[in-house]
Design a protein that fits this description.
single chain; alpha+beta; 16% strand; globular; binds zinc ion
Length: 173
């Protein structure tokens, strides 16, 4: 029987080889944002179409372009599938839960200070822990859990989420 790590590897490879929501949207009306991870050279071009206003707005469509390592591209694919049809509030919860899974080392990579939320020994804030306790379902995204063992790759995994947050902010700006 394949172990959990094999299953995770398969899910990541599946998203890398058959990326979901790959492509472009006409912009405008869609919002186009780019994200770049200089640590690895990953780039994400994200097209976002929001329906509605404020926190209740829904991700009507999202498309992903760009190139990079398997972690960055599979994470973007999983993210696109996970957020489509969700409200901005739900996306924020999902982002928080995913980052809680990843955040432990990302804060170290960002270096000390500069208004970072303080983290305890676990690297998780009380809010992060609550997001996990709330049972936010990460689905395929769980497959990226193993990335925390390779701190330098965490930026690869979180790139698409940071780009999405930027897209939502610009779309609602
Ligand atoms: Zn990468």
């Amino acid at each position: 029987m394949p172990g959990l790590e094999d299953l995770y590897r398969e899910i990541i490879l599946d998203h890398y080889r058959s990326p979901r929501n790959r492509g472009e949207l006409e912009s405008p009306p869609a919002t186009r944002v780019e994200g770049f991870n200089p640590l690895c050279g990953d780039e994400i071009v994200l097209y976002l179409d929001l329906d509605g206003e404020g926190d209740g707005a829904t991700v009507a469509d999202v498309r992903i372009g760009g190139q990079g390592c398997s972690i960055s591209q599979s994470s973007a694919s999983m993210m696109s599938a996970a957020v489509k049809g969700r409200t901005v509030t739900e996306v924020a919860q999902l982002t928080k839960a995913f980052k809680a899974m990843m955040s432990i080392h990302e804060q170290e990579l960002d270096g000390p200070g500069e208004g970072k939320e303080e983290a305890g020994d676990s690297g998780l804030t009380a809010d992060d822990a609550a997001a996990i306790d709330d049972g936010v379902r990460l689905g395929d995204l769980e497959a990226l859990r193993g990335v925390v063992k390779f701190p330098v790759r965490i930026k690869c995994a979180t790139l698409s989420w940071n780009t999405l947050a930027q897209g939502i902010a610009e779309a609602q700006g």
